Amino acid sequence: MTTPLSDGSDWSFELLEDYHREIVRIAENFELDTYRNQIEIINSEQMLDAYASVGMPINYHHWSYGKHFMHSEQNYRRGHMGLAYEIVINSNPCISYLMEENTMTMQALVIAHACYGHNSFFKGNYLFQTWTDADSIIEYLVFARKYISGCEERHGVAAVESVLDSCHALMNQGVDRYKRPSPISMQEEQKRQHDREEYLQQQVNDLWRTIPVSKAADTEKPETLFPSEPEENLLYFFEKHSPLLEPWQREVIRIVRKVARYLYPQRQTKVMNEGWACFWHFHILHQLYLDGLVTDGFMLEFLQHHTNVMYQPDFDSPYYNGVNPYTLGFGMMQDLKRVCEAPTKEDHEWFPDIAGSPWRETLDFAMKNFKDESFILQFLSPKLIRDLRLFCVVDDAKKEYLEVSCIHNDDGYQAVRESLSQTHNLSNIEPNIEVYKVDTQSDRTLHLRHERHEHRPLDDNSTVEMLKHVRRLWGFNVQLDSYGDEKVKKSYHCDEDDVGAEEAEEKEAAEA
Amino acid sequence: MTFFIDRRENPKNKSAVNRQRFLRRYRKQIRESIRQRLDNRSITNTEHGEKVSIPARDTAEPFFHHGSGGRHTHVLPGNKEFTPGDKLARPKGGGGGAGEGEASDQGEGIDEFVFELSRNEFLDFLFEDMELPNLTKRELIGSDEVKKVRAGYSTDGAPGNISITRSMRTATSRRIALGAGKRRELHKLEAELAELRNQPTASMDTKAEELELRIDELRSRLSRIPFLDDIDIRYHRQVNEPVPTSKAVMFCLMDVSGSMDQNTKSLAKRFFILLYLFLERHYERTEVVYIRHHTRAEEVDEEEFFYSRETGGTVVSSALELMRQIINERYPTSEWNIYGSQASDGDNWPDDTQRCNQLLDQILPLVQYYAYIEISEHSPKALWKTYEPIQQSYPDVFAMQNITGAGDIFPVFQELFRKETA
């Protein structure tokens, strides 16, 4: 019989090493493939700092981070909010911040959760592999911070701030949804940067060449669309094609774009990422218990935290705040293991290819090749739908009432699964806005096009505000048309020269 | 390979720059909020910062998102009695369950973004673009406050003040001084002894014995010189040096006669608060003297000054008289910067004018600045007219302004202490 590693809630660096050694052993037995770990102990104040810069260990200065800091500080001080036990950064080595206030149990839980759960997810999942470069992110952030503070010195804080404001506003429109990037290394990145600045400037101006050309060519030419294909990455479009920007402004746009791209996978894999991490802390800590390394008290404390995180209030509870991604993710991972190990007749019907397969490989496959939307669509089982008693309510603005469309029964499983998948689909949650064309022959008005999904309109106030930002980056007039059923339903303009002051008008287009 | 790194000792204020950026960006809103907040502050509460709230709408960062409308399918957990096809009334105001994906719609309200300013930040915001007039005296003033400074060494003092290097140096020199003669003789005898042994003679043995005896004696005497003696110990000497401090006293004069209602008084209070905070920033010590008056004047504490009610007529000169008297008794002008501030609704006994003028002629040369605010909608009233000639004779020291409502206080204050742009 082995003796427990420790008893009591105090931790020390020696104990952390002891626990960590055992956790590594178990994680290796489970064949978890991770980046190297760098575990840092921080205090609550530093945790607040980390919150403020969207979890990045280093970031450029911007007032909005100050705002977030003050907001969380105020909430924390007044006791409205607890702090996270840990923050983990998708970098290589994988940096995890542990709070010094945590008990020994919590530190062990957090090490298992972040350093082995999240870490292996970052390393394995295809989205992170294609979109982020864990090796260079820290270096890139250091570069970004230096570059932006250099710009502030040369051009003034206010000038840089206004560009950043507009870029931040458009951050969600700053990623390629359909294309795949080709990652390049940090060194190359820097080497290219200088050339790019000057080269780009020439390119842009060329679009509106003022040197007279022969008239014959001018007259009969049919109007060509620019851009030749709609562009959904607005920040990319401005970086490359906005006519009036200075080179440094293009680089600032690029920096925000890169950060947006780095964060994009996390937004698409919230359920999977947390589910995966919870699954592993659950199994690793249980293994510690089976090996006799932790006490009953340890397990009770751990289980209490675990169940708190997993709590899913019912829809009619005052605490209800959407489907808890931890509950859903952990539930699905556990369920997947069950389907592999002890499939029922129903499971054989729904998951013929994985029922009864080795669970470890199946889970790895699921972790590596999916994002929330596809993961739910592929693996949400009827059993879990029944357990959570999921049901769908259709809210159609055209009707006076809400309608329950499907529930957790034989007829409803597929529909519930599809609906839940769609609510995790970022391209449905966020409005689909593209650069449609530019009036290259007249006043350079930029035309944006919003395709309504399920007839959902844009929010008027924020859209008017947003167009000011778009106009600031574009430098000329902007028009946004909101399309539904192939027709313009509503148009927004931003015309005047002064971006900050004018009220953008909106008019109802003639409804058919 | 895994590293544990203890970051707890790292500097904390990573967000300080971002915080400053935020404060600068919302300067206008924050100042507005501070002005409103002044109502609730106690006059001498300057220990704390201030909670500030500015409209969340102003600080919002927009992004493209859907408005209400269109078709949404919500997936909810915890079904109890519903079956497909059930029709439900639409909940009002987006509350209850069907809120997913629409949370941002509810940002329309007048939510406030609340945060805390530190005391210094608060005062910076409050008093930017203002300065104290007539600062001449500030530099000159000494006082009985003292500070300990080191002034050489002494032979006695507290053990805590022992200067080790100085004591050791003294000990070394004492040892050298006491031992020098003996050591010289010792060396001589040793040389003699060595020579004697080199050239043996008949009487050598006795001579050598004598020498050895003497050498031993010298050695033992040398070894008895103490390494460190009480008389070696030196102490850092500390003397009291007077510290120049700048002190200010602020006289608050207020009319509490029947015509001053609570509202007028609270306007006056806010003015006094501002003045107090402002003086506090410029002087290391600021005292406040509260003088209230109707037909008689008396010195009271803060509580009584603002909240007790008296009735009766108004004789302003009684308060001025008391002020002059207090200055003479307690606040010699060589030590104190004196500021007078008077709030009144402008009523005064008509026969009092002459007396007021005389008293002010005596008081104004003593003070740095005297501000009179008249809280009245029907200004100018009797007191204003009384003071008008005075303002002309003492334009640098005497100022008066009219306040009609709460909104005026801060602008008037700013006007009184406007930074002179040279």
Task: Outline the structure in words.
The complex is a heterodimer of chains A (512) and B (422). Chain A is α+β, with helices and mostly antiparallel strands and 512 residues long. Chain A is built from 21 helices and 10 strands. Chain A is globular. Chain B has 422 residues and is of the alpha/beta class. At the A-B interface, helix 1, strand 1, helix 2, helix 3 and helix 7 of A face strand 1, helix 1, strand 3, strand 4 and strand 5 of B.
Characteristics:
heterodimer; A: alpha+beta; 4 domains; 5-stranded mixed β-sheet; 3-stranded mixed β-sheet; 21 helices; globular; B: 422 residues; alpha/beta; Rossmann fold; 3 domains; two-stranded antiparallel sheet; flat
Query: How many separate structural domains of chain A?
Result: 4
Q: Compute the separation of the termini of chain A in Å.
A: 79 Å
Q: What's the shape of chain B?
A: flat
Q: Reading side by side through the largest sheet of chain B, how are the strands ordered?
A: 10-9-8-11-12-13
What is this entry, summarized?
The complex is a heterodimer of chains A (512) and B (422). Helix content of chain A is 53%, strand content 12%.
Lay out the secondary structure.
The complex is a heterodimer of chains A (512) and B (422).
Chain A: H1 13-29, E1 37-42, H2 44-52, H3 63-77, E2 86-89, E3 94-99, H4 104-124, H5 126-131, H6 137-155, H7 157-169, H8 186-206, H9 215-219, H10 234-241, H11 247-268, H12 270-290, H13 296-310, H14 325-341, H15 345-350, H16 359-369, H17 372-379, H18 382-388, E4 391-396, E5 401-406, H19 413-423, H20 426-429, E6 432-438, E7 446-451, H21 460-474, E8 478-484, E9 487-494, E10 506-508
Parallel strand pairs in A: 1-3, 7-8
Antiparallel strand pairs in A: 2-3, 4-5, 6-7, 8-9, 9-10
Helix pairs in contact in A: 1-4, 1-12, 2-3, 4-12, 4-13, 6-7, 6-11, 7-11, 7-21, 8-11, 10-11, 12-13, 12-14, 14-16, 17-19
Chain B: E1 2-6, H1 16-25, H2 27-37, E2 50-55, H3 56-59, E3 71-76, E4 87-89, E5 112-117, H4 119-127, E6 146-154, H5 164-198, H6 204-223, E7 235-242, E8 247-255, H7 262-282, E9 285-293, E10 297-300, H8 302-307, H9 316-330, E11 336-344, H10 353-363, E12 369-375, H11 382-393, E13 398-403, H12 406-416
Parallel strand pairs in B: 8-9, 8-11, 11-12, 12-13
Antiparallel strand pairs in B: 2-5, 6-7, 9-10
Helix pairs in contact in B: 5-6, 7-12, 9-10, 10-11
